[in-house]
Design goal:
heterodimer; A: 9 helices; flat; B: mainly alpha
Chain lengths: ~200, ~180
């Protein structure tokens, strides 16, 4: 189905062009299960190592393109990537197998952690450790913000939109969707297609 | 009282807010799970989120713990489907349309425009969490240390979070 869909569009970048002969649903599930069980500290490098380097299920260019789609859409990078790669390999069923595989190990682990934490979360040693864990997590998110800014903000004016978003949520206590729509709309209009871009896009 | 319908509603809604990363939905998640539905307290939410950073796989798997607290095993499964179902279907449909939109100039505009907003949402989520997680010199020092190390060296972030646990024990455990 995915191949038919890709042929319809017949674009230069079509995900269906380099599909390896036959990847079974079981293989997809197993590969994503392994990624889901081993990807400590961020999924993307593990996805690349497994799908591009080890299995050759997607090439590097496709991987980057898929990642850019995943980042632009709501949803986590990890699960969006699973959907896109699964669809490329075996259509809708491939997507289901991939997302189940990547979610299962972490989900099971956090299910058990939740039960343990409910029983022992108020133990003095546990709360002491968790205070440090939470502080480290704040540092980790800040680092993500800095790295993303370096990578995807190309205009100085973009920082105005970053600040506006933070102020709307944290200071004016606007809901996230309202902020997303309001500031998002202004930012998209700011980046509206200009004449020269139109020409280069058409060529 | 059966919490499953409320869990499904809340997490399906939150899933659509995860633009740029799970943290983008954090301010709204705090309001809905802590203030509105009382499934857990704010410190508990922060702890579960932080511990979740050490788990492999997608980094918002702590939602499973909230589902389990609110509605047992069924609650956990319901939350998982509610949180990943809508965005999975959206990604599936949009990815297929994406190729057709390749020459549509507004596609680039939307990507460029949404990038700073999603970074702002991550930062807002981070500040919301910092209000509960940073209180005094030790926690501030741990956060800054993790930030600087990650920007300077290629270290696995999960190891640094684990290091945070050790420092937390050293700083806050009863002597």
């Amino acid at each position: 189905m995915s191949e038919a869909g890709a042929k319809l569009t017949s674009q230069k970048v079509s995900f269906a062009t380099t599909v390896p002969a036959a990847v079974s649903i079981g293989q997809i599930f197993l590969e994503f299960l392994i990624i889901g069980a081993t990807s400590f500290g961020g999924v993307v490098p593990y996805l690349r190592g497994s799908l591009v380097t080890k299995r050759h299920w997607v090439d590097d260019k496709e991987f980057v393109e898929m990642l850019s789609i995943s980042q632009s859409l709501p949803g986590l990078n990890a699960t969006n990537m699973a959907i896109l790669v699964g669809d490329k390999l075996r259509g809708a069923l491939g997507s289901v197998a991939a997302i189940l595989g990547i979610c299962l190990p972490g989900g099971l682990l956090m299910y058990l952690v939740g039960i343990f934490y409910r029983a022992h979360g108020d133990h003095v040693w546990v709360t002491a450790g968790l205070k440090g864990v939470a502080a480290a997590a704040v540092g980790l998110i800040l680092a993500t913000v800095v790295q993303l800014s370096k990578k995807s903000l190309d205009q100085r004016f973009d920082f105005v939109f970053v600040v506006l978003t933070v102020l709307a949520v944290n200071r004016l206590h606007q809901s996230v969707p309202r902020t997303l729509i309001a500031v998002g709309l202004i930012a998209v209009l700011w980046h509206r297609p200009r004449k020269e871009q139109k020409e280069s896009a058409a060529s | 009282m059966n919490q499953i319908p409320a869990l499904v509603r809340v997490f399906a809604y939150l899933s659509l807010l995860t633009v740029g990363g799970g943290m983008a939905a954090f301010p709204e998640m705090k309001i809905l799970t802590v203030d509105v539905h009382h499934w857990l307290t704010f410190p508990q939410l922060i702890h579960l989120y932080s511990v979740g950073q050490m788990a492999p796989g997608p980094n918002m798997m702590m939602i499973v713990s909230i589902g389990e607290w609110g509605g047992g095993l069924l609650g956990a499964v319901a939350v998982l489907i509610a949180f990943f179902g809508p965005t999975a279907m959206l990604a599936f449909v949009v990815a297929r349309l994406w190729k057709r939109l390749q020459t549509w100039p507004w596609r680039t505009s939307m990507q460029q425009g949404l990038a700073p907003v999603s970074i702002g949402l991550l930062l807002a989520g981070c500040f919301t969490m910092a209000k509960g997680a940073i209180f005094g010199l030790e926690t501030a020092a741990i956060a800054v240390a993790v930030l600087l190390i990650l920007l300077q060296y290629k270290v696995n972030p999960a190891l640094l979070v684990l290091g945070g646990a050790v420092l937390g024990l050293l700083s806050f455990a009863p002597k």
